[in-house]
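Format notes (please read before filing issues)

Several people have asked whether sequences and structure tokens are stored in separate files. They are not. Every record keeps both together, in the order shown below: the sequence lines, then the token lines. Line labels are part of the format and must not be stripped during preprocessing.
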Amino acid sequence: MDKKQIKNKAPKKRRVLHLNLGKALFVLPNLFTLSSVACGFYAITLLSAPLTADTFKICALAIFMAAFFDMFDGRVARMTKTQSAFGVEMDSLADVISFGVAPGLMVYRWGLSELGIWGVLAAFAYVACGAIRLARFNVLAQHHSSPSNYFVGMPIPGAATMVVSMVIFHQSYWGGTVESPRSVALIVLAVSLLMVSSVRYRTFKNLRPSPKVAFGLLLLVAICVTLCLLKGVATAVFTMVSSYFAMGLLEEMVYYKRRRLERQEARKQEAAAKEANATQAEGTAGENN
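Then the structure lines:
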């Protein structure tokens, strides 16, 4: 090739990559969700291998980390205004893995394996009820656009925290094998049924900065720190989760009559709305004919 041709040859243009900030923000909440999946998957891999002395503690830490990422993915999506139907469905699938399969396998390896097929069914009941709970939550969310102050049924992250804290609490104090697998099965079934029940649990989304809220938070922190110092972290976590577990049941017992009347009134309004729509449709059809 001649020197003139080399000089006349135009240099190639380099491609410049432009960062689309909107797409990058859309990925951010999904990264939190995938981090939750990674923690749940890590716990499952540990539980699928031969158990060691620290297996349950590491698995519990992984599931708690999954709960941390799950708690913030929705908030990040709202802060960045990147909510989407894709994110909702992905979050539900992640919850089935991290708070359904992982805790179910954990409680099976810990205290249900001695029951044979009945232990498998008890653990599967937990996973199945968790999946049903998530499906119902998505359906209700589609019909009610405004955020509610209550969960209908125990949320699956709360149920997973309850199961995991029970395992760690037992391991911290007694260790070894479980003396009463049937009692464990009953507790797991109770938690499973609470997920698909109509018992309401507070979301605490209606909390606003105020002296009462600040005092309540300080008191809660003080109780947690005291329990951690006196009894250990496992006792503190198990006590706080059990308190939330019992709070929903107590509120349901206290406000049972009022909530039943509210449900009956809601059914009447729904039936009246359907009847009005049907009458309007018949009138429109008659005018067209």
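For reference, the curators noted about this record: The longest helix spans residues 256-288. The mean pLDDT is 81.
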